[in-house]
Amino acid sequence: MEFKQFIFYFFAAVLVFAATMVITVKNPVKAALFLVLAFFNAAGLWLLLQAEFLAIVLVLVYVGAVMVLFLFVVMMLDINIARLREGFTRYLPLGGAVAVLLAAEMALVLGSGRFGLERVPEPAGLAADASNTRALGRLLYTTYAYPFELAALVLLVAIIAAIVLTLRRRKDTKYQDPGRQVRVERSERVRLVKMPAEKKS
């Protein structure tokens, strides 16, 4: 076994272990830290594939921004872990069935020649002055254009769903009407009050 293969299997084993701990550990803070470990090992795998740009983006964006924000939210909120895990065993068969269905659909899509996902030949060694970012952009916007647009659409739907789920209109909330503010007149804002002058004693 070559040293490169040994490093690959090491990163892959740690990645699978960290991903398993993310979904099995009870403490959400520890789960987030295991997710950070999984991101670092995924970045190591990207480095082995000579995709340095993706590895750096994975560490900077997900570990440096998303996970810090996630840890901040988890540690600031008072989460009742026991209440969250009450229905775990009850919904476990349904969740397992959905996971198997999603895995089968991904295998069908990625295994077929649809969406321009043909078999890509083994990449040759890159030159020293080769631009990783340019090669990634060329692949995304030519060979993988349709899957890239589908992923963007899925993310847009997720953003809209998150906004809809968190947008709650409360009766006791006070807000301003911009249209009414624009149509306001001077007589509605300023009121002149005549008061008698004070008499000096």
Topology overview:
Layout: H1 3-24, H2 28-48, H3 52-76, H4 81-84, H5 92-111, H6 132-141, H7 145-166, H8 178-182, H9 186-189
Helix pairs in contact: 1-2, 2-3
Catalytic activity: a quinone + NADH + 5 H(+)(in) = a quinol + NAD(+) + 4 H(+)(out)
Transmembrane segments: 6-25, 32-49, 55-79, 91-111, 144-167
InterPro entries: NADH_UbQ/plastoQ_OxRdtase_su6, Nuo/plastoQ_OxRdtase_6_NuoJ
Q: Could you characterize the architecture of this molecule?
A:
By secondary structure, this protein is mainly α. It has helices at residues 3-24, 28-48, 52-76, 81-84, 92-111, 132-141, 145-166, 178-182, 186-189. Helix 2 (28-48) packs antiparallel against helix 3. The chain is elongated and about 105 Å long. The protein starts with a helix and ends in a 12-residue tail after the last helix. The mean pLDDT is 79. GO terms for molecular function: NADH dehydrogenase (ubiquinone) activity; quinone binding. The chain crosses the membrane at residues 6-25, 32-49, 55-79, 91-111, 144-167. It is an enzyme of class 7 (translocase). This is NADH-quinone oxidoreductase subunit J.
What would a concise description of this structure say?
The chain has 201 residues and is an all-alpha fold.
Keywords:
transmembrane helix; single chain; NADH dehydrogenase (ubiquinone) activity; 201 residues; Four Helix Bundle (Hemerythrin (Met), subunit A); mainly alpha; 9 helices
